[in-house]
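Deliverable D2.4 — example input (structure tokens):
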């Protein structure tokens, strides 16, 4: 996923309208949110913290930000969780730093933020790259997680669809992400560098060994969109006891396209 084609077609236009609508709604319930930056390793990591109860981390996909969870964060807080949404390094309002991007480094950022916030353990819901980060934590530091929800995550480089770069919905998402980056990032001039560095990461990661996934010892829910635009595989069969749920009539952006269905699947799993 190293190039992004021009957006084209009615589907892309409609999806762009959907993304713009989400952007306008992202400030809802702002008074209830504690916002902050934490110095983690060589970056300033941005987070939004709301609600009380069992901690629940939300990790966005590549080029995303905390606003990616605007239909989930408030709903999960209302359901009784302390919800902490995080901007991964170089994305959203977090700084990029100078170190190469990688899932283990970003997982360590999350662990550092948990320490900063005094969170010994937490549930984790990760979308796409966020799911890959969650898998890394589950394999290396399972003692820090209560349950893991991985949506639209791949565990091998070849788990990404070969035609994702030609998909108009994915192209519309990246185009909106560039606009969001210009509006949110403390380093908006580094967009091209971020694209280069994330693309380089996607070319070499993830590459989780089957044996490492089979050793995961915590409850895992794998969510997979029926019309998934980016991920060609589902990893649930490799994780002992993992629950697998297909979300019908939606794909890689289910948390926007069908938020009620997405939220219900997550909350049912967390409460079980």
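Example output (designed residues):
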């Amino acid at each position: 996923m190293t190039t992004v084609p021009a957006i084209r077609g009615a589907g892309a236009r409609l999806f762009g309208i959907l993304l713009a609508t989400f952007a306008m709604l992202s400030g809802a319930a702002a008074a209830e949110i504690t916002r902050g930056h934490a110095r983690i390793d060589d970056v300033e990591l941005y987070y939004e913290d709301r609600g009380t109860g069992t901690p629940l981390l939300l990790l966005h996909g590549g080029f995303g930000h905390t606003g990616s969870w605007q239909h989930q964060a408030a709903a999960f807080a209302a359901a009784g969780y302390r919800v902490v949404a995080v901007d991964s390094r170089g994305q959203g309002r977090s700084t990029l730093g100078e170190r190469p991007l990688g899932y283990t480094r970003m997982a360590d950022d999350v662990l550092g933020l948990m320490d900063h916030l005094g969170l010994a353990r937490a549930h984790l819901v990760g979308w796409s790259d966020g799911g890959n980060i969650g898998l890394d934590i589950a394999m290396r530091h399972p003692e820090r997680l209560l349950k893991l929800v991985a949506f639209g995550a791949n565990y091998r480089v070849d788990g990404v669809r070969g035609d994702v770069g030609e998909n108009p919905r994915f192209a519309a998402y990246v185009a909106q992400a560039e606009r969001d980056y210009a509006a949110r990032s403390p380093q908006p001039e580094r967009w091209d560098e971020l694209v280069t560095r994330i693309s380089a990461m996607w070319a070499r990661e993830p590459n989780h060994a089957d044996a490492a996934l089979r050793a995961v010892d915590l409850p895992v829910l794998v969510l997979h969109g029926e019309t998934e635009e980016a991920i060609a595989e589902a990893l649930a069969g490799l994780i002992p006891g993992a629950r697998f749920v297909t979300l019908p009539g939606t794909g890689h952006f289910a948390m926007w396209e069908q938020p009620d269905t997405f939220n219900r699947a997550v909350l049912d799993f967390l409460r079980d």
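The chain has one domain: 9-271.
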